[in-house]
Amino acid sequence: MTTPVLEVKNLAKQYGTVQAVNGISFSIKQGTCFGLLGPNGAGKTTALEVIEDIIAPTSGEVLYNGAPKTASFREEIGIQFQHTSLLNFMTVRETIVTFQKLYKETERIEHLVESCKLSDILGQMNNKISGGQAQRLMLALALINKPKLIFLDEPSTGLDPQSRRYLWEIIRGIQEKGKTIVLTTHSMDEAEYLCDTIAIMDQGRIIARGSPAELIDRYCEGGTITLPRENISLPLTELPFPYRETNGRLEIMVDQINTGVEQLLAMKINLSDMTVHSPDLEDVFLNLTGKKLRD
Ligand code: ATP
């Protein structure tokens, strides 16, 4: 079996009386994207900062390629922080060149520009670029030292849907080049889109771990078909499924969407204006904790 890039063993971090991270363990395989998913305050950023060696743990250990971290760790990782201030008086190009001077071996600027889609804004001042462009620049800065392992702390927070998707495609492209990515997010669609493995965190602990599909399979059942109440003329008690009536619509809980739809059609129920919901990571979190991720 190949040695994992990172092994996190029983990691804990306490701030005064706050147990920010409470004994988490996991390992991350080379070339995969691993996500820490959880609501605000779950302990994701703290966990990431301990793994990155920015803050010391209260207890526990982190192995890098099977051994305690050495000085080379810092040179081999790239970090995109949640909050980084860019210098207003510099252009995007000048910022990249300045950061390049901090490292011995660096990625070529053309390569960074191409992979992070910066060609249109290279000459612009940092304070004149959009949120999405700033995130792409931050990503380029995280890649500057040709890292093998990249940490992204809530990479798309605050971006509009189009910029988020654009950033996701760039992150995917980086992963396809064989880099290992560790990210935090409180967006289940981001985790679902980018991550091979997810650890769901709540109150400092990992409450579930697996691929998005495994988690949904393990913690959720069936799906929901929602119809306008007036579509159903027969007595509701004749429905062969559990249901719930809310705001003039009927939520019908089925084991499988396909067979559920077939059965409703066979009962001559009008399916116009139907919506269908298959379980997702939001449902996993809700089923595990009784709370919504974004509460
Ligand atoms: P978010 O999504 O909001 O960034 P998070 O999951 O990353 O949340 P953390 O920022 O790791 O969560 O915070 C976990 C807990 O630790 C919170 O209760 C937070 O208030 C607390 N905490 C974080 N940093 C510190 C600090 N430097 N001093 C004291 N408490 C802290």
Description:
By secondary structure, the chain is of the alpha/beta class. It folds into 2 domains: 6-218, P-loop containing nucleotide triphosphate hydrolases (Rossmann fold), CATH 3.40.50.300; 221-278. It has 10 helices and 14 strands. A 6-stranded mixed beta sheet has the order 6-7-8-3-9-10, sandwiched between helices. Strands 2-1-4-5 form a 4-stranded antiparallel beta sheet, with helices on one face. The site of adenosine-5'-triphosphate has 12 residues, from strand 2 and helix 1.
Care to give the gist of this entry?
The chain has 295 residues and is of the alpha/beta class. Helices cover 31% and strands 27% of the residues. It folds into 2 domains: 213 residues, Rossmann fold; 58 residues.
- Major sheet: 6 strands, mixed
How many domain modules?
2
Count the beta strands.
14
Per DSSP, the total helix count is 10
According to CATH, the homologous superfamily of the largest domain is P-loop containing nucleotide triphosphate hydrolases
Which geometry do the CA atoms define?
A: globular
* Percent of residues in beta strands: 25-35%
The CATH architecture classification of the largest domain is 3-Layer(aba) Sandwich
Oligomer: single chain
The overall average pLDDT, rounded, is 91
Q: For the largest beta sheet, what order do the strands appear in spatially?
A: 6-7-8-3-9-10
Helix/strand-derived class? alpha/beta
Low-confidence stretches: none
Give the termini separation. 40 Å
For this structure, the CATH topology of the largest domain is Rossmann fold
Give the ligands present: adenosine-5'-triphosphate
Rg, rounded, reads 23 Å
User: Which series of helices and strands comes N to C?
Assistant: EEEHEEHEHHHEHEHEEHEEEHEH
CATH class placement of the largest domain:
Alpha Beta
Question: Helicity range of the residues?
Answer: 25-40%
